[in-house]
Specification:
Largest sheet: 5 strands, parallel
Oligomer: single chain
Number of strands: 9
Number of domains: 2
């Protein structure tokens, strides 16, 4: 079973030695990313995106660590957008995209094959184009050739996972300009403040017993994690958290949101990580238990429930019932409620916390959160 070394989490020298690319520092820059991206978007002339007119439809292209940009815009625009918003990870570009539509392509490096191919095809068809990525990149060149708007990544970070807010902010500004979803500058400035607050609470010098991200990391360390959102907004946060747990902490995690995922989560309580939990726990408490004769203790199901304070009572009741069932079954249950505010503010508070938690989990397990040998080998084999 994986074991999180809490002593390592509070050892600043050990954290610095493991975190070779300063992932924690990059996550702490999230608030600054928002503020700098607001300036970059304005300097790029984002007010003229799509010719300053509302497009017939919007397609957002992003993948990997940037994929949350698609999910967030889809979430925020779903309820009130006057035009359809769709998302795409890879080519081909849907046949209906043409000169009346807007394609938004996002890639930190500006070289991701999927978004780059979609942007190039959109330009060929005469669609309006907004791109977010590295200055001087192939994506920026495609945008310039198509007379689109390109916003440079505001603050460079070692990976797209830690550059989320540099990439998401210009897209939210464009969505506000086009009337897809209300996301004015004052709201984004409050998002920056929230990200700063979470970064301060989760700073490396904050000890494990008070640091909320370290508490989540140690709680999930010896579990098979299930991240559950109690609604659509927290479902997007749950998706991001599961992705970060897998890619950053190398811990396989599943995710879902209510009401759809209620049955599948509760059904897991009867499975190999649910049934027999009490027996496993009693053996763990047995002083005479022999791990060589009896085998290692079974991993426990870990439920990380992300809660939205603005949900209606019926949705809250279902989430309470799922959490109660998990506790009765002996699963490790961790709950985290979003801060109040506009939807993007609530989402930001959860994403920031779980990003830090996944990073601390990697460090607590003795792993570099930014460097995976197998990911490097995969890249070499497919290049």
């Amino acid at each position: 079973m994986p074991w999180v070394d809490e002593g390592r989490l509070d050892d600043q020298d050990a954290l610095r030695a493991l975190d070779t690319r300063d992932a924690l520092r990059s996550l702490a820059s999230a608030g600054a990313q928002v503020r700098r991206a607001l300036v970059s978007a304005d300097e790029a002339g984002i007010s003229r995106v799509a010719g300053g007119e509302r497009p017939r439809s919007v397609l957002v292209a992003a993948l990997g660590g940037s994929a949350l940009v698609c999910d967030v815009l889809d979430l925020l625009a779903e309820a009130g957008s006057p035009v359809p918003v769709t998302t795409r990870r890879d080519a081909p570009l849907p046949g209906w995209v043409g000169p009346l539509d807007l394609v938004i392509a996002v890639s930190q490096s500006g070289r991701a094959v999927g978004p780059l191919a979609l942007a190039a095809e959109a330009a060929r068809r005469g669609a309006a184009l907004l791109t977010v990525g590295a200055a001087g990149s192939p994506l920026a060149a495609v945008s310039a050739q198509a007379r689109g708007v390109h916003v440079d990544v505001a603050i460079p970070t070692p990976s797209s996972r830690t550059a989320l807010w540099s990439m998401l902010t210009p897209v939210l500004v464009a969505a506000d300009v086009l009337g897809l979803t209300p996301c004015p500058t004052p709201v984004l400035e409050r998002v920056a403040d929230i990200l700063d607050e979470v970064a301060d609470e989760c700073r490396p010098t904050s000890e494990s017993f008070v640091n909320p991200a370290k508490i989540l990391a140690t709680g999930l360390g010896e579990t098979v994690p299930v991240v559950l959102g109690d609604g659509l907004l927290t479902g997007v946060a749950a998706m991001r958290a599961a992705s970060m747990l897998a890619r950053t902490a190398r811990v396989p995690a599943t995710h879902g949101f209510l009401p759809d995922a209620a049955s599948q989560v509760v059904a897991c309580l009867d499975g190999p990580f649910g049934s027999g939990l009490r027996d496993a726990q009693s053996r763990d408490d047995d002083f005479f238990a022999d791990p060589y004769l009896d085998g290692p203790a079974a991993p426990r199901l870990g439920l990380l429930a992300l809660r939205d304070p603005d949900l209606d009572p019926s949705a809250t009741a279902l989430a309470d019932a799922v959490v109660a069932s998990a506790r009765e079954a002996g699963a490790v249950v961790l709950e985290q409620e979003a801060r109040s505010g506009a939807p993007i503010e609530r989402l930001a508070s959860l994403v920031a916390l779980t990003d830090f938690a996944a990073t601390y989990l990697a460090l607590g397990l003795g792993l570099d959160p930014s460097v995976s040998r197998h990911v490097v080998e995969l890249s070499d084999r497919t290049s």
